[in-house]
Every structure is written in C-alpha cells, then in structure tokens.
Amino acid sequence: MLYIYIYIYIYIYIYIYIYIYIYIYIYIYIYIYIYIYIYIYIYPCVFLADLSIWVPDRQKIVKQLYEYKPPLKGLDSDKVNIRKTREFKDNPLETKRGIPTIFAITPTYSRLEQKADLTRLCQTFRLVENVHWILVEDSINKTALVKRLVTNCKVPCAHLNAVTPSTFKNVPGKRKLPRGVAQRNAALTWIRDHVDPKEVQGVVYFADDDNTYDVRIFEEMRYTKVVSVWPVGLIAGGKFESPMVKDGKVVGWIFYVGAHRRFPIDMASFAFNVQLLFSHLKAEFKYTVPSGTQESTILEGLNVTMSDMEPKANNCTEILVWHTRTQSTSLINQPKLQEKFKTVNFDLEV
Ligand SMILES: *[C@@H]1O[C@H](CO)[C@@H](O)[C@H](O)[C@H]1NC(C)=O
After folding, report:
1. HSE (CB half, 13 Å, CA atoms) of 251?
2. Beta strands at 202-206 and 270-273: parallel, antiparallel or unpaired
3. Which residues bind Mn(2+) (predicted)?
4. Which CA distances in Å does 133 have to 88, 118, 147?
5. Which of the pair, 43 or 233, is modelled with greater confidence?
6. Per-residue pLDDT, 57
7. What is the rounded distance in angstroms from the CA atom of residue 257 to the CA atom of residue 260?
8. What are phi and psi of 62, to 5 degrees?
C-alpha cells in the first residue's frame, strides 16, 4: 500500500515538475518573444510608415498586417531590379543620371491594331530620358507579339500580364464596365514591390497605348511634387478638357460630361510623385465604382486635394497630349485579297 502512495506521490511530483519548469517556461518565453517582436519591431514600423517615413521591410510588414491580397498572375516571372534596368546598356538614350524616372503604365489588349499602337508609343518613349515602361497585357499569358515588341523597343520595360476577371469583361449592349483596372493595379503592385522609395525619385503616369504624346509633356511632369495636371485634346466630344487655372493655381475643371466625378479629368491628364504609392499603400483602381470615376478613385486613394495640383503646360494653356483613338480596321476585302493572291503568305504578323 505504502509503495503505491509513494509511487503516486513521485508521479504527481514529476508531473508538476515537468509542467512548471518546461511547459510554463516555454509559454513565458514565447510570449516574451512575441511581445518584443510586436512592440520593438512591428509597432514602430507601422507608426513610422503612417508618418510616411520609410523603414526597412515596411511594405512587407504593413502588407502582412492588413493588406493581404491574392497574388496576381504573371507578376513573379518579371522580377526586374529597377537599379539594374536603369543601367540598361543597349539604350543610348538612357544616359542622363540624377533625373527622376517616369514610370509610364500602359494597359494593353490583343487586337488588330495593337502592334501599330505600341510601336508608336515605344518610339515616343525612346525620345524621353529615364522612362521605365510598365506594359501590362490583359491576357492569361504574355503574348509572343508583345514580348518581341518589348525586346526590339529598347526602352527599359517591365512586361506584365493581368487578366480582367470574366465578370468584368465588357459585353456589347450591356452597361460599359471600367477597363484596365486589373492591369493598372498590377503595375502599381509592381512598383511597390520593385522600387525602393529611398533610392528612386520619379513620377507615375498612366499612358494609354492609343493616345498621342508630345515628348515635352514628360519633361513637364518629371519634377512633380505631388500631382501635376494639364489639358488633354480631342476628348469627350470637345476640342479639349482642362484644369481651370487662376493665378498659377488649379481652381476648377473645364469639362462637359460626368459632373458626378470628384476630379473630372482623364487618365492622360495627370501624373503623381511615386512616393505617394508608398505612403498610401491601399490606393488602387476599382471595378466597383461608377463609370468614369477611375481617375477620381486613384486620386482619392492617394489623398490628393485640388490645392495639391500643380498646373503644367504653361499654366494649362498648351495641349501636349491628345486622346486620339485608333480606328478599328475593317478586313472586309481580306477574303478577296487572299483569293486573288493564292500563293502569298498572309499569316505575317501585322
Ligand atoms: C503661371 O501663373 C502664375 C501666376 O500668374 C505665374 O506666377 C507663373 O509664372 C505662371 N507659370 C508659367 C509657367 O507661366
């Protein structure tokens, strides 16, 4: 009997010993480590991030805390290092150092006129120093046509793809849905992931592939402090739309349609300092806003007000960008042409 009591006593003693000295101590150590991690590392980083002060890994930490988004297809295959691409040796135009980079974001989709439009845009960029083109295809995979074009273009380029979700594809006859949302957001994500805001000065501009650009517009926008704005020609059924400027300040907008917009301006009419993307990590385009309000959505996301706007193009008195549209090509005579020239290979890339 006594042996049993001793046995139980020893058993309980050992159990308590193990529990106190191992189990509890491990818990205490884990808690201490977690508290040290949160109070010494994460909280200061988030706090500094809110004050727009850059800290190492800030982006990663803030994203982990409250910014998780499913990864976009195709982004990882293009891990282009911005510092490397700025030293793009083959490009004789990429020589001038110490001037801000222009991150030109172009959504594009496959169509008969795509190569012509992109060729013209590429050649415009070749006349501009320190452009980093971010070209985003609306496709499941990057196409061979655009890959070849980017290679031949010699402009430093991040070639990405982000497919428009099928629920947001435009259907003829139905209400028009916003275009380019997934693609422009993929480009913003690329900048946030690949550009070191401590090292790079620059501006972000949304340069659609069918507009016409006077190269002087890029020099106008290059030193943008917050957001710069200017007129756009041949738009919305009028000769131009423009910011209204008084005494060198933006005081309103010259436009006719779409008064529901907070900023009634076109995508081609503004550029903003790249640092804003890092101080406003949630700023992005959205499918769920009324049509025509994509520009307002991103500018509101960047917490911009009218008093932040810097009028460019000689106080908005010059048109340096045009909202031109490429007419879609009719192939009405193609069958007859092929009938007439039976031995000609018409499968050439156009
Ligand atoms: C714009 O207008 C303001 C005020 O009239 C003037 O001070 C400034 O020099 C003008 N800017 C340009 C580029 O002409």
Report:
1. 6
2. antiparallel
3. 210
4. 13, 11, 13
5. 233
6. 54
7. 9
8. -65, -40
* Phi, psi at 274, each rounded to 5°: -60, -25
Query: Distance of alpha carbon 255 from its chain centroid, rounded?
Result: 26
Cα of 66 from ligand 1 centre, angstroms: 43
Does ligand 1 come within 6 angstroms of the Cβ of 314?
yes
Mean pLDDT of the chain, nearest integer:
86
Tens digits of residue pLDDT in 293-327: 999 999 999 999 999 999 999 999 999 999 999 99
d(CA 13, CA 7): 10
Q: What is the pLDDT of residue 79?
A: 40
Q: What is the dihedral of CA 147, 82, 304, 253, to 10 degrees?
A: -40
Distance 312 CA to ligand 1 centre (A): 10
Whether this model's pTM surpasses 0.85: no
Q: Is 334 in the pocket of ligand 1 (CB under 6 A)?
A: no
The answer to which of 49-63, 69-83, 107-121, 214-228 has the lowest mean pLDDT is 69-83
The maximal CA–CA distance of the chain, rounded, in angstroms, is 113
Indicate if ligand 1 lies below 6 Å from the C-beta of 76: no
